[in-house]
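Reopening this one. Same input as before:
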Amino acid sequence: MSDFSPFLHSSPSGARLAVRHVPADEAGRAVVQINHGLAEHAARYQRFARFLAAHGYHVYAHDHRGHGATRAPDSIPGAFASKDGASKVVADVAAIHALIGERHPGLPVITFGHSMGGLVALNFAETHPAASSALAIWNSNFNAGISGRAAQAVLAVEAVFKGSDTPSAILPRLTFQAWANAMPKRRTDFDWLSHDPVEVDLYVIDPLSGWDATVSMWRDVFALIYQGGDATALARLPKALPVHLVGGAEDPATDNGAAVRWLADRMQEAGLISVSTTILPHTRHETLNEINREQSMADFVSWLDTSLSPAP
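Same output, byte for byte:
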């Protein structure tokens, strides 16, 4: 079995992607391609990858631009790119899918994304509608609404006065800090991630997690939000595409799961007929690092097995 160490893969976008792979324990039936969240990295998905591999799924997970060990000539840590970052981070996912196609020809590919990774995953699925046999979006918020437009205006002002390649001074207050303040009797500023103090502490001490994103990355994140949730873009998805949406009932980043339900409604309005939506009680932002993670992972595999089984 792979030790989950990264190898480098060149993307047509110019990035050198740090990719981690776990082969299925036996002959794999499909491949899960993982997209991690903002201010973290792919190595944090090792437990999930090994769980999937033990149930017959090959797994690939890469560090997005500006994260982890991935490097690009037009990217600094904390930024996707100097320009067109949203499209380039999606292009990198396409490069990983091409790699998977070369290594596992004919196998179905499931595109999975957590939080910001869910934004990337949906935008990828919309721009490459034939690439995914199933789509899983966990803990993502596409319902930024008017407040998101206000945040974009603030970021535009920051870009003028301080530049795009410096950390935003305002967005952390509206996101990570606000979510921290929503936690009762919080022990750390990252209790909003999970009820499990061990997992929270691992995040806190991780030098590759919890940093402040640049102005340009936040602008790209909002571009992914509004592009991905657009009705015209959603209409590009195959109507029979199996979609797995998961949120936490105590996750302030998704308005306690309301944003996940919003996306489910939008997908159904777009004509998708196989959308599974679960809002987990007593669950915060990182479902895969929550105290109920074993059940959540088992439920996901059950959904995969059912979704990929041939119709009777």
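So the earlier flakiness isn't reproducible anymore. For the record, The domain at 7-145+227-308 is CATH 3.40.50.1820 (Rossmann fold).
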